[in-house]
Design goal:
Largest sheet: 4 strands, antiparallel
Helix content: 25-40%
Length: about 180
């Protein structure tokens, strides 16, 4: 959630604070609208289907509350409904347009990075069994395939190889390693 912690929402500050009571007598604003927008962005990132589920996650997870900016308490569902009604469709369109421009600006100046992240990558591997039987004189290697080795696979021991792929956030391959199954 480094993305939400480093997100600077000052350019959309006027839209978020629109029609909120900020001065004089009356009840003060309990939750900052920036926190609410970060919570709604969290809902999109985590693919939480309903606001009700977002509120449950915020109440149960202190880390998510801290990332959004809430302290010990999280707002209720009605708070988010009031915020959506107050900002309106045009306000959210303006916020979305600003977020898109900011993402494109960062993409041009810092390719493959996003607000505080250097380069997100994923490593995934699979076992490749060899089409060979074990050598009767050395049971750790293959008979027909001398490079194949016995190693620990996902379903027990296998004779073969391991294949590891590393891809970036845009699914472009960064690297591939194939090694005998006994190599870590």
């Amino acid at each position: 959630m480094l993305l939400l912690e480093n997100l600077d929402l000052t350019p959309v500050h006027s839209i978020l604070w629109m029609d909120l009571h900020t001065e004089g007598p009356g009840r003060p604003v309990e939750y900052s609208p920036e926190w609410d927008l970060k919570a709604l962005l969290l809902r999109l990132i985590e693919q939480i289907p309903y606001v009700k589920d977002l509120v449950k996650r915020l109440r149960r997870n202190p880390y998510l509350r801290r990332v959004c900016g809430y302290g010990d308490r999280a707002p209720c569902e009605a708070h988010f409904s009031q915020m959506k009604r107050r900002i309106g469709v045009d306000g959210f369109r303006a916020i979305e347009a600003w977020l898109r421009r900011e993402a494109l600006r960062l993409r041009m100046s810092q390719p493959l990075s996003a607000v505080g992240l250097i380069q997100a990558a994923c490593i995934d591997g699979t076992d490749l069994p060899a089409w060979s039987s074990t050598d009767p004189h050395n049971t750790r290697r293959g008979l027909g395939d001398p490079d194949a080795r016995v190693g620990r696979g996902k379903k027990g021991f296998i004779l073969g190889y391991e294949s590891l792929f590393q891809v970036d956030i845009e699914d472009f391959p960064l690297g591939n390693v194939e090694a005998p199954a006994n190599v870590n």
